[in-house]
Specification:
SOD-like_Cu/Zn_dom_sf, globular, three-stranded antiparallel beta sheet, about 140 residues, single chain, about 30% strand, mainly beta
Length: about 140
């Protein structure tokens, strides 16, 4: 039935230094239950793998989840609501890839929009967490 999602997320400073270029590749996605939202979360994943311990979405401006993110106005969304701004992982696919620039996340350490010391969580639409992974720095970049 799918599950045990595997994949890679590469995130580097966007050309021109504004925003982050995300390149995402996931495979072995669940065959039912989508579309699947995904978000940057506040904490990294602890060594025991507990996705709940990643806490809430990255939201340094305390926007909250209501009203729902409007992709036509990404500047009004939570920094961590990547699927709200760029589209959820579709239902009924076993693999999915996306590449986009998010203008609101940052590779600059020390500011609230920095994601390099945080995690990415994939959810079912009812907000149940399916899987999660922490970002790790590679050659000076957060990936």
């Amino acid at each position: 039935d799918g599950g045990n999602i595997q994949g890679d997320v590469t995130a580097v400073a966007a050309p021109g230094g504004v925003g982050v270029q995300f390149t995402i590749k996931f495979s072995n996605l669940p065959k039912v239950g989508g579309p699947f939202p995904y978000h940057l979360h506040v904490n990294p994943v602890p060594s025991n793998g507990n996705c709940t311990a990643t806490l809430a979405h990255l939201d340094p401006f305390a926007r909250g989840e209501d009203p729902k993110c409007d992709a036509a106005h990404p500047e009004t969304c939570q920094v961590g609501d990547l699927s709200g701004k760029h589209g959820a992982i579709p239902a009924n696919v076993s693999t999915w890839e996306a590449s986009y620039v998010d203008l609101y996340a940052s590779t600059v350490e020390g500011i609230g929009a920095f994601f390099g010391n945080r995690s990415l969580v994939i959810h079912f639409p009812n907000k149940t967490r399916i899987t999660c992974a922490s970002f790790e720095s590679a050659s000076g970049s957060a990936t």
